[in-house]
Design brief:
141 residues, 19% helix, alpha+beta, 2 domains, two-stranded antiparallel sheet
């Protein structure tokens, strides 16, 4: 079986990094005002949660981001809230479910109808594959 769970491209713009490693690009939803919530990784920071509007003009990749309250410095992705992390994991799991369905379909040779007939003489059997509805991914709060 040559198909992998994650195919390059798709809704998450998956990249195959070789072996069993992939990179997904997930766009976090923004509020009505175009800003997104960020959380300071320093547990002692108070209030620790703030909003930013992406698009500062930095195009070379931002090495560090700073908390506006305590000035804690980390890589920008370290400021993702727990809800944003949950959302990203749920999006990847949803894509994995789609990939596993396609792997099973390809492995058993199901056609577009999702059915396959075996035999055809005195004894025959028909099998079918029904995919579950992909789960709804609740946006981060």
């Amino acid at each position: 079986m040559s198909r992998k769970v994650f195919q390059p491209g798709g809704p998450l713009n998956m990249e195959d990094l070789g072996g069993d490693q992939f990179r997904a690009s997930i766009t976090l939803p923004r509020g009505e005002d175009g800003r997104m919530t960020r959380t300071c990784p320093d547990e002692n920071c108070s209030p620790g949660t703030f909003k930013v509007k992406p698009g500062t003009g930095i195009t070379d990749g931002q090495a560090l981001a700073y908390c506006p309250y305590c000035r804690h410095a980390e890589a920008p992705e370290q400021f993702a809230s727990k809800e944003q992390q949950r959302y990203a994991k749920d999006m990847v799991l949803r894509e994995a479910q789609r990939g596993v369905h396609h792997m099973i379909r390809d492995a058993f040779g199901f056609g577009a109808s999702g059915k396959k007939k075996l035999g055809g003489g005195l004894i025959s059997m028909e099998i079918s594959l029904k995919s579950a509805t992909l789960p709804y991914v609740r946006p981060p709060v």
